Each structure stands twice: as structure tokens, then as C-alpha cells.
Amino acid sequence: MLKLARRQLFAFGIPAAFAFLAPLILVLASLAALWSMAVPDTGGDAAGGGFPFAVLDDIYVRRAISFTLMQAALSAILSTLLALPLARALASRDFFGKTAILSLFGAPFILPVIVAILGLLAVWGKTGPVHGLVTGLGYGDFSIYGLSGILLAHVFFNLPLACRILLQGWLAIPPEQWRLATQLGMGSGAIARHIEWPMLKERLPGVFAIVFLLCATSFTVVLALGGGPKATTIELAIYQAIRYDFDLQRAALLAFLQILLCAGLALVSRLIARDHDTGDSLGGAVPRGDRSSRLARSFDGAVITLALIFLALPLLAAFIRGMQGLLAYDLEISALLPATARSIAVALGSCAVMGLISLPLAQLSIHLKGKTKRLVELPGFAIMVAPPIALGAGLFILLNQHIPIDRLALPLTALLNGLQAVPFALILIGPAMGQIKRDHGRQIQQLGMSRSTAIRLVHWPLMRKPIGLSLGITAALSIGDLGVIALFGSPTAPTLPLYLYQQMGAYRMDQAYGSGLLLTAVAFAFFLLFDKGLAGRDQT
Amino acid sequence: MKALTLALLATTGMAIVASLASTPSAFAADKPTLTVYAYDSFNTEWGPGPAIKEGFEKTCDCVVEYVAPGDATETFNRLRLEGSSSKADVLLGLDSNLVADADKSGLFEPNSIAVDGLKLPVVWNSSTYVPFDWGYFAFVYDSDKVKTVPTSFEELVNAPDDLKIVIEDPRSSTPGLGLLLWVKNLYGERADEIWQKLSPRIVTVTKGWSEAYGMFLEGQADMVLSYTTSPAYHIEAENKTNYKAALFSEGHYMQVELAAVTKSSQNKALANQFLSYLIGPEAQKIIPTTNWMYPVALPDADWPASFKDLARPGKALLFDTGKVSNIRKVALDEWLGALSK
Predict the structure, then answer these.
(1) Which ipTM score applies to this complex?
(2) Measured distance CA(A322)–CA(A511) in Å, rounded
(3) Are residues A187 and A316 in the same domain?
(4) Cβ-contact B140, B243 below 8 angstroms
(5) Do A529 and B16 touch (CB under 8 A)?
(6) CATH number for the domain including A369?
(7) CB contact under 8 A, B5 and A141
(8) In chain A, what residues touch B33 (CB-CB under 8 Å)?
(9) What is the separation of C-alpha A123 from the centre of its chain, rounded to a whole number of angstroms?
(10) In total, how many domains does chain A have?
(11) pLDDT tens per residue, range B51-102
């Protein structure tokens, strides 16, 4: 960085320094605030002494930790195991509509979590068809609330993700191997042992790790489906300590523990997971001869059909009940419109934050070499280990005494949502930027292009796709956010997801489904606006 | 693509304009606004909120604005969070069990309203908190579905596992707190064990009363923690007599709902006027058939028919308001410990 020419300082150095330092400072300041609150001065009025980790003696906190880990492990195991036959079936078959199914698998990324939960409730809830079927057949009673509901929702969100990664693995096996297998007349067992297992051995730990990490920090699912103290994760316990109890000390301790836990998990997953291509190469089928029997064909068909029903039914239910809700009830435009406007404002703010941090960071990383390059990963890592609720709790404690949090609810939500998107954005933007430097860096220098010309002629055309996609994901995630806003938001000025959650709380479910449909439409519209509008349709 | 972009920009613009236009200050600039923080079920179209707003606005030449962050404790916590910067003039729905915490918060101001003439099953002489209704906590069930109804708390605790109940979180909801103290009051040291026994029957613990009652009505549980007065709603509003409150022989814990003026209020005279209105004849007549609680100042003759026939618990239970804060802390830890198993 020091070698940079002075004229580049303003164009490059300052944004890079800002992007590098801002997340680190935020996370560290938040940690410091949590620590000072968790370990009060001896004069504090908190009962139970001042030992920082006396909280571990608290049986409730211990259970929250073990429940967090247990549900994350179960969710990861279930998602991975179910993804295995599904990915194999999808890899083996090529059929009409496969592309559509695969893009459906991308939907849970963009779909607001709370809307998916509404869909799951409509299908699996007490009044839904599945419950009717199961009790009708005399298989007893079950409830979507508690562990089973949380697992159901986590599998719903993560099965497609796990399946996509594994499917890429199957498709990445060189065709020669399959040809060889056919020539050697290998059976399914031998293929599994010699061809599939080596690929799976490499990918499964990574799949497991990413699903585990996502589920260990999942908030909205546990908020909506958790069944009281029995099904409380650390994230939820932080929120409850602040919003229910107003017990900032407990919140601080929990947030601190959460960050430690995430740091540990992130380190472990880094060790076992490898970077995989994230390209869209999910088309085509592997040429294998061992699965052409009628039995194998119908098995694969059944697997794909079941997965499709499992994933599509809740979406369909949410859509239908949403339409009914919108049509049958008077729309409370006076509440819905401002809520939508707030959500959009938050989303645009998040996009700005994401861009301001990710672009300079990506740029910085391609200009550095060797060990310093790894240093650039630090801000992204800091963001990953400080989940939004824990980070939010820190900022809450930091700001609460000075400013009424209400007034900062929307900016803070935008900030935290934007930060959350940075690690994703770096994955998309970083490699693209590196490639430009490799492919065109020399040309730009030789032609003596000015900075702005280079950006206009080279960078922008090649970067608009990853940037558009990053912005689209950020906007959609932020529009659907019900974590940070639940912590900071004011009931009088809710964003759309918070408004929906209020409707659910007041048990106005039909209106909630209506708002859910609107929310989904807004999230998808902004995703498309950025992804297709900015990235262009025919970019390669 | 351009069309989509334009359409999106247009909706965004419209939404922003609409949100700016709908801020209350735009049309209420000339009248003072009284901001009342109340629990969510108070300010629903079927709750007492709208009628009381309308009635009071006729007399005060002001605008009443409700803020309903959630159940009663959550509402109180919201106020604690906002502290002296809150725009709340009145907090409505504080539970008598939270008075000690409310005192400690230092957020409320004494008022001049006479409360000694109010009809309450307990003696009340606070100069800060004005009771506006009260009730007994009870488990409500659908007598068409539940045939074997527990007649005591002991029977509920030992009921078969398939008798499912839904309860509220004592940290965010006053009925939840009521049940916590009910158990503690009846069982003392054994409370922890009682919760462990109840645990398998609890379908879920909701954030507030509205969620719990909604789940019960949708059939997600056999019994819901509510009030002995809840069946009156089904009689009056729906003409249904199948919803009943289970009476327990050990007695029922009770709740007195309070309202108070905040120290930070800029409209204290108006806020006091509102509290007087709340215990005046007009509001008291509204409360039974909208909030479904016993009124504090309504002649028996004016009670709705459904209230006169309601079964009354043999014994009312209530901890001393001064002691309840410490009891609550202990009971809450027991509750969290037992139910997280």
C-alpha cells in the first residue's frame, strides 16, 4: 500500500483503508462494549458476582449453547444425507424442466425467511394437509413448533444448497472416469467406491460445515418456530435478553459466547472445507451406465419428485394464501406502503455499505501478494464470526446510553445487513477482479489508459455481472431481514418483515400471508433489478 | 428490463411520498398528541383501544396515539429502553406484579387521581399506578373437545401427557408472569419440580397473549393460559358457550392492570385526564366487553349478562407487590432451567 503513488491515494488508498478498517473497528468496538457490560464494575447492581463466565453455571445458558450446537448438527446431517440421493439423481438424469428445478433450488436464497416459514406453517402446521394426513392415518400428533419445526425449516433452506454443491461435485468428475467405468463394466458399488467416494470425501465436510455454520447462527427460524426455552439458540437468547428481559448483562455474555463459538466454527470449517468453483455449470448429466435399470430410474424419479414436492409445496401454499390474503382483506395501504418504503431504503443502504466495503477490499486483495494478501481476508472473517444479532447487541450497548436506538434502527439495520453480505460479495467480486488484472492488466498499462477510461471500457463491462449479482443478493437479503430489525426496530415504524411479524403476533394470519406475498415480490423485484438490470441479460 | 426498472423506481418514489405523507405530525399539528403505550391486544379493532380513543378525543380536544410493541411486559421494557427520551405520555397495562420494577425504573410520576373508591378484590392505595381492570388467570378450554378437565392445579400437573397447553413467556407477557407466580405461590420450593412435570404438556411458549390465544383457537393446544373472563368473549361476541375456564380448587392468581403517567411526558395534564377517563363510567363500560376483564368502577347492575354468570374462583392469590420483584427473579431462573430441559 505504501508503494502507491500519491495521486492514487484518494482514488484507492483511502477507500481501501476504510474498507479494511471499518469492519474491524466495528467488530472490536462491539466486542469491547460487550465485554465491559458482561464484566460489570464491582459497584454494579447485578446479582451473581462479576465473573465473566459465571454465566456458564447458568443452566439456561448452557442449554442454549447445547441446543444451538445440537440443532445445527442435526440440520447439517439431515440436509447432507438427503442431498446425497437427490444430487446423484439430478446428476444422473437429464430431463425436461431440470433447469427450472435447479433455479427453484436457488429460490431459498432470495426468498425472505419469514415468508418461507409462513409457507411451511401452511403445509406442516396443525391446519395444514400433512398434519391432517398423518393424524387421519392414525400416526399420532406432531407439532411444527420446537426442534422438529426448526429442523424442518433448516432442511428446507439448506437441502438445495447442499444439493447444488454436491451436484457440482458429480459434474466435476471428468467424463473419462465414467467412460472407463463403463468399459470396465463397473457396478454401482464399484463406482461408488472408486469414483464417487473420492469426490464426496472432499466435498462432504465442506457441505456439512457450511450448513452447520448457517444453522448455528440462524435467527428468524428459531424466533418463529422455537418452542420456548426448550428450543432457544444463543442468537434467540440474546434477542430475548434484550427485548423481553432488558437484561443487558446476560445479553452481552451470550453475544460474547456466540462470537467465540462462531470464530471457532469458522476456523474449523476453514480447515476442513476447500474452495469450490461457484460457477453455474449445473446443466447436463454424467454419462453413467450403471443406473439405467428401471428400478434405478424410478428411484431417481421418486427422489426428485419428493424433493420437488417438499420444496415447492410451501412456496405454492404461501403464494396461494398470500393471494387470498391480498384479495379477501382490505389492504392497510397506510401501513404497508411506509413499511415497504422503509424496507427499500434499508436495502439500498445495505447495498451501499456492501459496495463501499467489498469493492475496495477485492481491489486491495488483487494488488497484494503473499502473506499480506491473507491479511485482507481479516475484515471478511471478522464479519463472519460476529453474527448480526451478536454484533447488534454490542452496538446496542454501545449506543443505548447516548442515543435513542429507535432513531438509528433503520441505518443500523442497513449497516449490519450490508456487512453481512460482504463475505458473499467478496466470493463473487474477488475472482472476477483478479481475472481482469491477469487478462487485461498489461494491456491497460501498455495502452496508457486513464483510470476512468479503463473502468469504463474494461472493468465495468466485465465486472457488472458479479457486482449486479452481489447487489441483488444484498438487496434481497436486506429486504427480507427479520433479525437485526427485530432487535432495533420500533413497533411504530416497522419494515415490511417486522410488520408481517407483528401481524403474525396478532394472529392476523391471512393478512400476514398477504404481506408475505408483497414482501417476496419486492425482494425478487430488487434482486432482478440488480442482477438482470445491472448485469445485463447477455453478459458472459 | 427498462420497463421493470421504471416501474420499480415509480413504486419506490410513491412509497416514499406516501410514507412522508402519512406521518401523523402532518395533520395533527394544531392539536396536542397524547401518546399511549399499550399492549398489542388492547389496541386491536376488537379491543378497547379504538372506542376509548374515540371517547376520550371527544372530551380532550387532542389526538390519542397508541404504540403497541407487544405484550404488556414487552411494552414496559420498550419504555425502559427508551428511557427519558421516550415520547410516551402514558403506559397502559402495567401488571401489579411489576410495580416494584416500575418504581425502580423511576420512569413514572405520581398523580392526583383518587383510587380508593375503586372496586378491587385487594386493597389498592398507590398514588402512581391507577388500576383500570382486573382478572383471574385461568386455563381456558373448549368443552366440546376436552372432556376430562382438571379441577385443581394438582390435577393439571398430573394430567395425561396428551393434554396439551400453550402458555406465555413470563419475560415478555403478563399472563406468563402470572402463571409463574401462581405456581410459585402454590408450590414454593417445589415450583421447579412442578414446571418439569408440566413441561411435556407445553406445546409452545409464546411471546404474548395474542399469539397463545390465537394458537389455541386454531386448535394447536387443548388449553391456553388466559383469564376466567375470557369465555365471556365467546358468549357475547360469538354466541358460543363451549369455551370455559377451568376452575382450580387451590385458588387462582390474579392480575390488576395499571396505567401510569411518565415523568418524561410533555402533556402531563392531558395524561392525568386520560387516566381519569379510563376509570370513569364511559371507559369502564367499554372495558368488560372489549378487554374481557373485570371493571374497577362499574355498578353491578351495568355488568354485561355474560359477566354476571361467570364462575368465580373460590380463592384469589396475589403476592405482596413489594416482595414480588425478588420472588420473580428466583422463579424465572427456575422456570428457564426447568423448561429448557
Answers:
(1) 0.77
(2) 8
(3) yes
(4) yes
(5) no
(6) 1.10.3720.10
(7) no
(8) none
(9) 23
(10) 2
(11) 999 999 999 999 999 988 878 888 898 888 778 878 899 999 999 888 988 9
